[in-house]
Amino acid sequence: MVYWHYFCIHLKSQMQYKVSFIFTALGQFLGSLTAFLGIWFMFTRFHQVNGFRFEEVLLCFATVLLSYSMAECFGRGFDLFPQMISNGEFDRALVRPRSLIFQVLASKMEFSRIGRLLQAVLVFFYAIPRSGVNWHLGTIVTLCLMIICGSIFFSLLFLVYAAISFFTIQGLEFMNIFTDGAREFGRYPFSIYGKQVLRILTYVVPMAWFQYYPFLYLIGQRTNPWWIASPLVCLVFAMPAIWFWRVGLKNYVSTGS
Questions:
Q1: Would you state the pLDDT for residue 162?
Q2: Which pTM does this prediction carry?
Q3: In degrees rounded to 5, what are phi and psi of residue 52?
């Protein structure tokens, strides 16, 4: 499998500098630790936020952090896509007999994001037995879908960010509102930000479908088993994301590098 070969190549190259890798991963862990401490300090003052308890909020925090970390680890190529255009590397990709999205996706993997991923796993270990969730097959499948679909959704956001570079050469920083911003906002259930924000995150940028609505099913505020599949709804975002990529590709003009 071609992707597996790319995986091994990136892993071996990053393991050539083990000390650097360890310190980078540690920096990632400590960086996201401040977000966790912010939640913890707030709940030492307030016992609930919009009716949600500390352990319940940690499920949202860990889900979004793990999803984002996986997307950033394996979808890093989209984030660095502007460099591929400016240095002419994308022109070489155009003549290769492989999918362009696949080539960009496999061009970079950032395994140092394991620091954030490890923190998310540790938070899950703490929150899952204390959250009061009635764990059964339905809730387990829901949580797994939240993580998987969230990771795919963030990767699609990175794809949109990459597609913008077809028109601007350089990526636009406003996309960080939806990538890094979503990771920060996702520390809490989206309903705490108000109905208008929840509507935007439901119908425009459908993040709420992998974070908020299945979360309500986990904690028992929704009982219809159809909510188990609600994270799959956010994957509808793939259609406009891929369409935008194709429009950009159609209008791409070589940089001449």
A1: 86
A2: 0.89
A3: -100, 135
